[in-house]
Amino acid sequence: MDSTDVFTADPTTPLLSDRLTAWARTRDRGERAAVAALLEEGDVLAREDVRHLLVVEAGDTVFCDWPRFEAQYRSVLVLDRGEDAFLTLVIATAFPRLVPLWKVEELGDRRLAVVLRALAGLAGSGTVAVGARA
Predict the structure, then answer these.
(1) Winning range, highest mean pLDDT, from 11-15, 99-103, 104-108
(2) pTM of the full structure
(3) What is the DSSP string of the chain?
């Protein structure tokens, strides 16, 4: 089970990851790539404080409130440098804007690969391989 799904107590309720994926299918490729990155990375979205600030659940509706999250995440959340860098780049994937690329220095290999796949998705490419070279 994905760590973002552990808080779903009712087995008849669809998992948050499934609900966010379904919502993202209706969005532009940047938001689809950002949601995919959050779900793939798993650790950040597993945090209740991050979900509370980013994810809006109203009945059957679930979505990412990117503008609210972007406006508040640095002042509300306690983030380490890697989490801050990852979220900065994910937000820029969802809604393109200028970001300091030096943030990639803080990601580590696992999060860097997730962000690179998100950027490939933002570019509309499903064929660019991201991972270790043989």
Answers:
(1) 104-108
(2) 0.80
(3) --GGGTT---TTSPPHHHHHHHHHTTS-HHHHHHHHHHHHH-HHHHSHHHHHHHEEEETTEEEE-HHHHHHHHHHHS---HHHHHHHHHHHHHHS-----GGGGGGTHHHHHHHHHHHHHHHTT-S----S---
